[in-house]
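for the writeup, i need someone to sanity check this before i put it in the appendix. the sequnce is what the collaborator sent (i think, or maybe the updated version? ugh). structure was predicted straight from it, no edits. if anything looks off just tell me and ill rerun, i have time this weekend
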Amino acid sequence: MQELVSDMLSLAQAESTETYEFARTNLSSIVSKEALQFESVAFERNVTIEDDIAEGMHVQGSTRALEKLVGTLIDNACKYAAEASSVTVRLSRQGKKAVLSVRNLGNPIPQESIEHVFDRFYRADKARTHDDSRSFGLGLAIARGITESHGGSIKVKSSAEDGTVFTVVLPLSK
């Protein structure tokens, strides 16, 4: 119950920019740190994390919120990755935007579920749902709220051939 309350508070905070303290934030460092922190989670699931992180990428934002965003995406990728596969975390620059992508191989998200994955309490089909009583279907809703509160966008593509890729685009700091 505490986990649910915590997630609900995170969601409410993500939807209200007034609660974040924004400052020039090193997104490269956040992504590197989060990828490193999830290596043990990946290892427990017989998955490796590969990263390709451009240095010196700064955004205007909340360090705490961006850590939650990146952590949520990497955690989900590790949870749903096929055994003995890898999760790929990339951060690159496209013009005046930072582009973060997190990819895994495993059971794809059904196409009819793609438009709902960012909805509160939404859980995709049984193939992508694990017996994890701590998961309430709020993580991706929180990720979307954080992304949008930082002036960005988030999307997902999923197929058996290419895997599942979550992509976040954020404006770079001037």
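Residues 2-171 form a domain with the Heat Shock Protein 90 fold (CATH 3.30.565.10). The longest strand covers residues 86-94.
thx in advance!!
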